[in-house]
Amino acid sequence: MAVATDATTLGAALRDYEARFHARIVQCQDPRIAGAEAANKYFEYLDLKSGSMQLVDVHVLRGDQEICPKRDLAFALEPDDLVDIGELIC
Questions:
Q1: Rounded to an integer, what distance in angstroms lies between the CA atom of residue 10 and that of residue 29?
Q2: pLDDT tens digits, 49-90
Q3: Between residues 41 and 1, the one the model is more confident about
Q4: In the chain, N or C terminus with fewer CB closer than 10 Å?
Q5: CA distances from 3 to 35, 60, 80 (A)
Q6: What 3-state DSSP class applies to 56?
Q7: Confidence bin at 2 (pLDDT 50/70/90)
Q8: Quick check: helix, strand or coil at residue 19?
């Protein structure tokens, strides 16, 4: 799901998303993928209403670009950016 935000960093955008959708998004700490490339890229998404947790990938949609900032919460957002939080499909 892509969300428009006035945040200036990825971390602030994720906090906006959490407040809007009653969720918690944290850097992946799953020991099964620790040390793998995935451990430096994915987040854990916890739905606070249902208690369900899943791994997600976060991208920034900027014009016709899809940027993967990995877990860089200081990643600078531009005014027209969309933050896309997507469920892993494989």
A1: 19
A2: 999 998 899 999 999 999 999 989 999 999 999 899 988 765
A3: 41
A4: C
A5: 30, 10, 11
A6: strand
A7: low
A8: helix
Q: Which two tokens stand for residue 37?
A: 């490339």
Q: Check if the beta carbon of residue 70 is closer than 8 Å to that of residue 40.
A: yes
Q: Is 1 exposed, middle or buried (0-12, 13-18, 19+ CB in 10 A)?
A: exposed
Residues in the chain: 90
Q: How far is CA 50 from the centre of its chain?
A: 19
Q: Which DSSP letter does residue 8 get? A: S
Q: Are 46 and 53 in contact (CB under 8 A)?
A: yes
User: Residue 33: CB partners within 8 Å, gap ≥ 6?
Assistant: 39, 42
Angle (CA) 6 11 13, round 5°: 30
Q: How many helices (H) and strands (E) does the chain have?
A: 1, 6
